[in-house]
Structure formats: structure tokens, C-alpha cells
Amino acid sequence: MSRPGHLRLGVNIDHVATVRNARGGAYPDPLRAARIAEQAGADGITAHLREDRRHISDADIDGLMEVLSVPLNFEMAATPEMQAIALRHKPHAVCIVPERREERTTEGGLEVAREENRLAHFIAPLREAGCRVSIFIAADQRQIEAAHRIGAQVIELHTGAYCDAHAEGRFDDRDRELEGLREMSAFAHGLGLEVHAGHGLTYDTVQPVAAFPEVAELNIGHFLIGEAIFLGLEPAISEMRRLMDEARA
Q: What residues are annotated to the active site?
């Protein structure tokens, strides 16, 4: 159980599988990465099973459900195939994300407001199965209100625009994006939604978001797997954990 006020860290292991799949073998093993992440202070593991299986595989999800002692956050598109997989495994959390085959990574938040009826019916069986349903969305009041109406318990705010602006030196845009994230975190929390955030966060960008008192969890993956090449996975995660704790303190 998380401590009161503790900011949870979910470590996304997708890109361990990306490296494995580049050679078509069994190494590096995402399950081993998940166990190391637990040891380094991760509060949960995130894995996105894409329609095209470009990184995480069905067997990875099977294995994670068997070996993890921390919760699995199962990221998935709102398709019948993925719903069936989630209902078979019943992970702790299911995060519904937008997905397009041609994208390199998830490019933005889910369009909830235009698909309220479909998404409400889609997530209802997942909630009934005991999964905690999260919706990955932009920091936009209209989308947050729609996520609340369809019965999501959690929203995850897309931090990519904020991180991109920082990396590109567009600091006015960065500050504007950060303020939007701050305002929408407070707004969503006021509706009774649990607030998570993630996408593109690095050592340089994590602390301002970690300092938002309404944010309960950050999900971080690509940067940590990349940094592990230079530091090792456990030290890379431990440093992120340290920065998050420092910001929250």
C-alpha cells in the first residue's frame, strides 16, 4: 500500500521488449526488467500491448501477471480484442490509450468527448471485473469532464507537449503547458478523479509535475530504459525515484 502523500512511480517496460524484438530472440527479458524496477522503488509496472505487437507480446503480459508483486497497469486501445485480453487477466489497472499503427509512440490523448457512448459501454465490463480504469487524455477540461461522465476512476494527463517544449528550448510554451497541467490536475481532482501523468518525462522535467499535490502517480518508461544504457536500470530508476520524492517533499 502507498504511504499517504506518496507519489507512485509506474515504470513502463515497453522498450525493453523493443530491444529484444530487434533481434527476434528472448533477450533482454521485460520480466527481468520488471523485477529490477520493483527492487529500485517502482510502485507499479506499465506495459502497452499494441495491436501490432511491436514491443510487448501476449506472452509478456501472461508472464507479468504471474510474477509481479506490484500492480500491473495494462495499457491498451479500446478494441474488442484488447478488452477480451484484459477481462481474461483482470490486471489491477487498465489504461485506455489512443493508438494508430503508423505512429512511433502515443501522440496525444484519447478523444473521449466525441466517443462518450462507445467508451462508456467499453469500460463498463472492465470496471465490473474489478479493474481500475484510467483514460489517457490531454490536459483539457472538456476531455476530463467526459472521462468523469463515462465512469473512469482515473485520468492520466499527457505530459508530452510540456516535455517537448522544454527539450526544444521553447520555454514560454513549456511554462504554458505546465500551467495547463497544473490547472487540469486540480480540476480533475476536484471531480473526484485520481490523477496520473506521463509521457516524455525526464530527470529535467519530472520535478515540476511531481510537485503537483493532486498527482498520485507518474508513469515513465522510454527515458528510463534509455538512461539504463549508461547507468544501469536500477540506478536510473532510483534517481528518478529520488527526484520525485525531493519534489514532493
A: 48, 75, 199
Residue with cell 462508456: 120
Task: Annotate 4-30 with three-state secondary structure.
Answer: CCCCEEEEECHHHHHHHHHHCCCCCCH
How many C-beta atoms surround the C-beta of residue 128 within 10 A? Answer: 9
For the beta carbon of residue 80, count every other beta carbon within 10 angstroms: 8
Give the pLDDT confidence of 40-94 residue by residue, as tens digits. Answer: 999 999 999 999 999 999 999 999 999 999 999 999 999 999 999 999 999 999 9
Determine the 3-state secondary structure of 102 from DSSP: coil
Superfamily per CATH, domain 8-248? Aldolase class I (3.20.20.70)
